[in-house]
Amino acid sequence: MDAEDICFGNIALATTWPELDVQTHWYRGGWWDQAHIFWDDFADDGRVQAITESDPSPEGRSDVGSLVLHAEMEPAQSLTFTFILAWYFPNRENYWNAKPAVRQRRMRNYYATRFASAWEVARYVQSRLDKLEHATRLFHNALFNSTLPGYVIDAVSSQASVIRTNTCLWLDDGSFFAFEGCGDASGCCPMNCRTCGIMNRHWPISFRASSVPCAAPIFSTILCPTGT
Q1: 95-146 pLDDT, tens per residue?
Q2: Distance (Å, whole) CA 63 – CA 24
């Protein structure tokens, strides 16, 4: 597939555990053969036959792959197995604007300026896992241990993940935009809806009051670039 195609991309499932079996795809058969064959193989001795082929799945069908991790444990012992799920789909398409000049215009996600594949993303996460976890916990502690009213903490924490979804667009030129919300297949009220207008007027005040000056211009000028 061409790298500029809107569907171009890949996903990586990785682990930091050294002892494992890998199957990039299960048996490609009909009915429930694939699950039956996998389970018979696994149930025999807790291991599975290695399959490392990288060819794509048949047209119109999806593959199932497996990572089977192995460890010996003493009674009452605990172990942590780390999995990393990474993805790389760099291209976007303007499907929401009917104007011919921009309709179906191609855009690139910002992360495409930093990575070239999901495997690179997984390697980056693996090499900085402790640092990333530490920073995440600092954010959590700063919010939940703050003196903000409980209803504010609840409102902010319950919605914070939206910035990491397809509701928001961070493009390769640094521009940041957002829909009002997302359905299962598309966003709604793109980029300049009235909700953004309300945020435009009220969020800068709340952010300045909470001593996060850099957040005010982000939400007041970039979410709503038209000022409406």
Answers
A1: 888 888 888 899 999 999 999 999 999 999 999 999 999 999 999 999 999 9
A2: 8
Distances (CA, A) of 139 to 134, 136, 144, 173: 9, 5, 9, 27
C-alpha 207/C-alpha 118 separation (Å) is 34
Cα-based distances in Å from 142 to 128, 137, 161, 177, 210: 21, 8, 16, 26, 12
The answer to whether 66 touches 60, Cβ cutoff 8 Å, is: no
Residue 226 phi, psi dihedral angles, 5° rounding: -85, -10
Angle at 136 between CA 134 and CA 141, to 5 degrees: 95
Rounded to whole angstroms, how far apart are CA atoms 199 and 197?
A: 5
Which residues lie across from 191 on neighbouring strands?
Answer: none
pLDDT score of 24 more than 70 = yes
Beta bridge partners of 11: 87
Strands across the sheet containing 176-182: 168-170, 176-182, 187-190
Who's near 71: CB < 8 A, 6+ residues apart? 17, 19, 79, 81
CA–CA separation, 224 and 158 (whole Å): 22
Q: Which long-range contacts link 197-202 to residues 24+ away (Cβ below 8 Å)?
A: 197/224, 197/228, 199/223, 199/224, 200/224, 200/227
Q: Give the tokens for residue 17.
A: 């555990």
